[in-house]
């Protein structure tokens, strides 16, 4: 006598939230790492609550949910960020800083998502102002959320006493709750996003100094004299930012002279050194260069300088600017360090 087959059990009917919980539970049980922290807080809470409410589902229902999920994934051709914060992240570097800052302010992007990702992407020059202006406790939280290399760079930019106070304050952040860290991050991100975008990357002192570096000596002296009359303090800052041929003995070490000379065409170097005759500060720079290279090369240059005779002002100024340009290039590429000028 045969036993009649039991009727097939109907599959469970699940809503979309329950199906999402099934997929998450399946992936987690397989040891997969799912970036659920990227979801908004309310969705994380809803998903967690749904997982807590469910008990078991039959195998057929599991297969059906997984099949539907795979079909949905296969049908997707392209995904988009989903919100303005994600869109700004994708467009970073492709739109102007001014447009990016305006969109962040208008959409309140700093108030959403993880503000520490936004903060960690800023330059050390912007973040150092936070450490200088905020309390030690806020600074300690910020350093704790940054990468080790960036935090170390910021500490190195601070005076010793403040760096020590911040380091000690980090030891007291162990009991700070996540909500407090989040609030601090949101506040700092909003504060940084509210800063106006500067039209120029460098300050006025650096810009004027760079222009005067390559101006004719007479023009440079005339401008500095005018600045002395208008704003003596600003003029002093500009003078410290300027590096000219005459500054070489004070700002370039003796061992670095051969490195500078190697990058300059010999005729250009002859013109620069030959133009120095008759001006005491320039002659000092000329002698400093000649005395700190090989004797053979120095003797050759002296002979060529004598043969060249008088160098015109136009040629001489151009040649000295070429020497200064080579020094600037070496400094910008990290191959040369200027000696700090005593104020």
Index terms:
elongated; disordered N terminus; 343 residues; mainly alpha; 20 helices
Task: Give an overview of the whole structure.
By secondary structure, the protein is mainly α. Helix content is 66%, strand content 0%. The radius of gyration is 33 Å and the shape is elongated.
In short, what is this structure?
By secondary structure, the protein is mainly alpha-helical. The chain is 66% helix and 0% strand. The longest helix is centred in the C-terminal third of the chain and has 20 residues, at 313-332.
Task: Indicate the radius of gyration in whole angstroms.
Answer: 33 Å
The total beta strand count reads: 0
Multimerization state = single chain
Uncertain segments: 1-9
H-E order: HHHHHHHHHHHHHHHHHHHH
Query: Hey, roughly how much beta strand do the residues contain?
Result: under 5%
The major pleated sheet works out as:
none
Give the terminus-to-terminus CA distance. Answer: 110 Å
Mean pLDDT score: 82
Residue share in helices?
55-70%
Morphology call: elongated
Structural class designation: mainly alpha
How many separate helices? 20
Secondary structure layout plus pairing:
Elements: H1 16-29, H2 41-53, H3 59-75, H4 84-91, H5 97-107, H6 115-120, H7 124-133, H8 136-145, H9 148-156, H10 160-170, H11 178-194, H12 204-213, H13 217-230, H14 232-241, H15 248-251, H16 257-262, H17 266-274, H18 280-291, H19 295-308, H20 313-332
Helix pairs in contact: 1-2, 4-5, 8-10, 12-14, 13-14, 17-19, 17-20
């Amino acid at each position: 006598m045969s036993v009649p087959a039991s009727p097939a059990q109907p599959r469970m009917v699940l809503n979309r939230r329950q199906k999402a919980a099934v997929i998450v539970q399946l992936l987690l049980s397989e040891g997969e790492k799912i970036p659920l922290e990227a979801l908004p807080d309310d969705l994380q809470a809803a998903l967690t609550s749904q997982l807590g409410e469910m008990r078991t589902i039959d195998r057929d229902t599991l297969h059906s949910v997984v099949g539907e999920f795979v079909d949905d994934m296969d049908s997707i051709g392209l995904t988009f960020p989903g919100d303005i914060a994600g869109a700004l992240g994708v467009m970073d570097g492709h739109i102007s800083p001014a447009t990016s800052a305006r969109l962040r302010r208008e959409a309140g992007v700093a108030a959403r998502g993880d503000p520490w990702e936004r903060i960690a992407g800023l330059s050390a020059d912007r973040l150092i102002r936070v450490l200088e202006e905020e309390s030690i406790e806020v600074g300690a939280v910020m350093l704790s959320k940054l990468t080790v290399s960036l935090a170390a760079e910021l500490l190195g930019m601070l005076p010793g006493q403040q760096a020590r106070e911040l380091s000690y304050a980090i030891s007291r952040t162990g009991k700070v709750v996540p909500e407090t860290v989040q609030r601090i991050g949101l506040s700092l991100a909003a504060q940084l996003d509210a800063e106006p975008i500067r039209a120029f990357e460098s300050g006025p002192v650096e810009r004027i100094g760079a222009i005067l570096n390559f101006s004719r000596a007479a023009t440079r002296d005339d401008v500095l004299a005018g600045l002395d009359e208008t704003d003596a303090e600003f003029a002093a800052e500009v003078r410290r930012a300027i590096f000219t041929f005459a500054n070489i003995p004070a700002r370039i070490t003796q061992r670095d002279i051969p490195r500078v000379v190697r990058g300059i065409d010999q005729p250009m170097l002859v013109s620069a050194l030959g133009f120095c005759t008759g001006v005491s500060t320039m002659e000092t720079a000329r002698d400093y260069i000649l005395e700190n290279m090989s004797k053979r090369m120095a003797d050759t240059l002296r002979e060529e300088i004598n043969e060249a005779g008088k160098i015109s002002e136009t040629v001489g100024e151009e040649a000295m600017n070429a020497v200064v340009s080579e020094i600037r290039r070496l400094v910008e590429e990290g191959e040369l360090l200027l000696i700090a000028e005593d104020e």
